[in-house]
Design brief:
The radius of gyration is 19 Å and the shape is globular. It has one domain: monomeric porin ompg (Porin, Beta Barrel). Strand 11 and strand 12 form a beta hairpin. The longest helix has 11 residues. The protein has a twelve-stranded antiparallel barrel with strand order 1-2-3-4-5-6-7-8-10-11-12-13. By secondary structure, it is mainly beta.
Length: 258
């Protein structure tokens, strides 16, 4: 089975960290006032292909004024064109687009060629307003597996209950072009079989909703729980290799910033 965090919660993983780590105290450290965040994270998530994947892994990330290095993304900030409320940057997602699969992952995938997770890169913009925080991402597959592109927007808002509990509801949508959908969910003529017709994927929009809970153990320590549900678009659910039209993921984590 291919372990890929896009299916077990790579989107949740990135949003999970982006939404919760700002609540931890910042401390000047390395170049540009940088600091480290370490922790342990675990996820369990559905895939559109009908199997469930789980992952548990240690986490380490370094961030300063100009970049953020960790997993699943490497981010370069552009502070000279950013403000306190509007920031721009470049991002590389090392864990791919839609995750991919191997033929052995599910019985109905036998005879299918492996789909690679790939490496995606692009531009990001974050806009913080009094009412809501908005995050925009425009990504493309630079690894050349799907040659696809995606556009996504995520809206979120932090609410504090007392001094320690942070609750962050979020709602987002991701548009995938026809190349990305066809690579991950298409069926070629050579892969067609009884009960699995050839299928050419079309561009589609996935919608995600979720909520993140963060509990501050101290100024620099946090426990986290993230729950999200994604409804894939019809370009995906119409595929004969797709068996699920609602995907849930759950993430748990502990983080320490220093």
């Amino acid at each position: 089975m291919t372990i890929n965090m896009k299916q077990t919660g790579s989107v949740a993983f990135a949003v999970f960290l982006a939404l919760t780590t700002p609540a931890l105290a910042q401390e000047p450290g390395g170049p540009g006032g940088g600091g480290f965040t370490v922790g342990l994270l675990g996820f369990r998530g559905d895939t559109a292909y009908g199997f469930t994947e789980t992952a548990a892994l240690p986490f380490i990330e370094y961030e300063n004024e100009y970049f953020k290095l960790g997993l699943p993304t490497l981010d370069v900030k552009l502070p000279w064109i950013s403000t306190e409320t509007l920031s721009f940057g470049l991002s590389v997602d090392l864990l791919g687009g839609e995750g991919g699969y191997e033929a052995s992952d599910a019985p109905h995938l036998r005879g299918m060629a492996e789909r690679e997770a790939g490496i995606w890169a692009g531009a990001v913009m974050d806009w913080r307003t009094e009412a809501v925080d908005l995050s925009f991402r425009a990504m493309t597959d630079i690894g050349g597996d799907s040659e696809g592109s995606s556009l996504s927007v995520m809206a979120s808002r932090d609410f504090f209950v007392g001094e320690r509990l942070m609750i962050t509801p979020k709602l987002g949508a991701t548009w995938l072009d026809d190349k990305a959908v066809n690579y991950y969910y298409g069926v070629t003529q050579a892969e067609a079989a009884p009960g699995r017709a050839a299928y050419t994927g079309t561009s589609t929009v996935n919608v995600e909703a979720g909520i993140t809970f963060g509990y501050l153990l101290s100024e620099r320590q946090m426990l986290m729980l993230d729950v999200s549900v994604t409804n894939p678009g019809s370009g995906i659910t119409d595929s004969p290799v797709v068996t699920e039209d609602r995907l849930t993921s759950v993430g748990l984590g502990y983080m320490l910033k220093f």
